[in-house]
Write a sequence for this structure.
């Protein structure tokens, strides 16, 4: 019951997200990138900042530990069936239209973000792809990690890669809605 995405499909989607971010948001100025439809909604810059923070805080450590051979399997990661179920469940939740509250450690800054956030996101995306390609030869479907959100949730590194791209598409769509909102500053 995994996400059923292959790593080549994930690489293709991650590369497309980087291209789409550059072409859709790369021309926006600082005011446009930081404009928010309302006080409780995120700007384009905040959506991109959130993705960078989430990937670094939540997934890159597991990738790095797997790549350098220091990842230690916990008891809960050894339980059969749970990783496949949880991987599928988290993937489907991220792919849904349901709203979720971001954990405090990955909520974007409320202040004005660097107008270079689009190029920072594109560079970050290349880093993410590099890490995902590095785990490819390590059989990521058999490497189980624990979710940084809930210590009882486990899924494979392959599912984690799928979760990354579906989470990125989710917030990319959110950023597109910001640009389409009435009142969005025109250059």
């Amino acid at each position: 019951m995994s996400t059923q995405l292959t790593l080549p499909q994930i690489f293709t989607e991650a590369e497309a997200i980087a291209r789409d971010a550059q072409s859709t948001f790369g021309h926006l100025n600082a005011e446009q990138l930081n404009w928010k439809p309302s006080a409780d909604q995120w700007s384009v810059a905040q959506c991109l900042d959130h993705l960078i923070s989430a990937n670094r805080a939540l997934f890159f450590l597991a990738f790095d530990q797997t790549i350098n051979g220091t990842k230690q399997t916990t008891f809960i990661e050894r339980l059969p069936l749970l990783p496949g179920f949880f991987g599928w469940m988290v993937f489907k939740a991220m792919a849904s239209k349901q709203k979720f509250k971001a954990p405090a450690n990955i909520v974007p800054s409320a202040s004005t973000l660097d107008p270079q956030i689009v190029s920072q996101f594109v560079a970050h995306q290349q880093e993410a792809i590099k890490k995902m390609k590095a785990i490819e030869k390590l059989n990521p479907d058999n490497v189980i990690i624990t979710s940084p959100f809930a210590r009882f949730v486990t899924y494979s590194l392959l599912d984690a890669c799928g979760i990354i791209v579906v989470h990125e598409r989710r917030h990319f769509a959110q950023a597109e809605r910001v640009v389409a909102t009435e009142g969005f500053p025109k250059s």
